[in-house]
Amino acid sequence: MKILLVDGTVFGRKTGAVLQQVQRYIADLNTDLELEILYFSDLKHQILDGSPLNDDMKMMIQKFEEADGYIFASPIFQASIPGVLKNAFDMIPPKALRYKPAAIVGNGGTYQHHLVLENQLKPILDYFRCLVLPNYVYTHADHFDAENNIVDEEIHMRLKELARVFAQYCEMSKALKQEPVNAQ
């Protein structure tokens, strides 16, 4: 199974650091999963405005369509997910993520911003009919050292649990019949 770990921002390094840690925990649990991190900061983004998509956006959409599961990492800016992440969701065909496992990790500047993941990102993934894990992990700047290493043991335990549940969701999703993306 191909698992796409999505660093849904072009700013900062904390979401990428969290994804790298989750990637290691998942790899420890299931070596059969093909794990790839997609860093939005490496892409030339384009607003969805009806003009032809550039090569980076075409490649991004293809990676979403070909993946069998997702870990989404989002920082919280101005009490919202980043515009590039929402814009990416707007480009993806509605059935591309259907019945595929999806987990959420996030990072923000206040402890209250964890609700953004619950109230903005989860509903988007529900719209796509992803198999959204019931647990997500929210991190704060206090959980990292100066080099963006996670130093909080509770966060490590929660990320390990998220990886364990995600690996189980991947196994469960194999039994679900996937509809072709273009099926009605």
Could you explain the architecture of this structure?
- 39% of the residues lie in helices and 18% in strands.
- By secondary structure, the protein is of the alpha/beta class.
- It has one domain: Flavodoxin domain (Rossmann fold), CATH 3.40.50.360.
- Helix 1 crosses helix 5.
- The mean pLDDT is 93.
Layout of strands and helices, then pairs:
Elements: E1 2-7, H1 14-29, E2 34-39, H2 55-66, E3 69-75, H3 83-91, E4 101-108, H4 114-127, E5 131-132, E6 137-140, H5 153-173
Helix pairs in contact: 1-5
Kindly report the average pLDDT value. Answer: 93
In percent, how much strand structure appears in the residues? Answer: 15-25%
- Helix fraction bin: 25-40%
What would CATH call the homologous superfamily? Flavodoxin domain
- Indicate the CATH topology: Rossmann fold
Protein name: NADH-dependent FMN reductase
Keywords: Flavoprotein, FMN, Oxidoreductase
Domain NADPH-dependent FMN reductase-like: 1-141
InterPro entries: Flavoprotein-like_sf, FMN_Rdtase-like_dom, NAD(P)H-dep_FMN_reductase
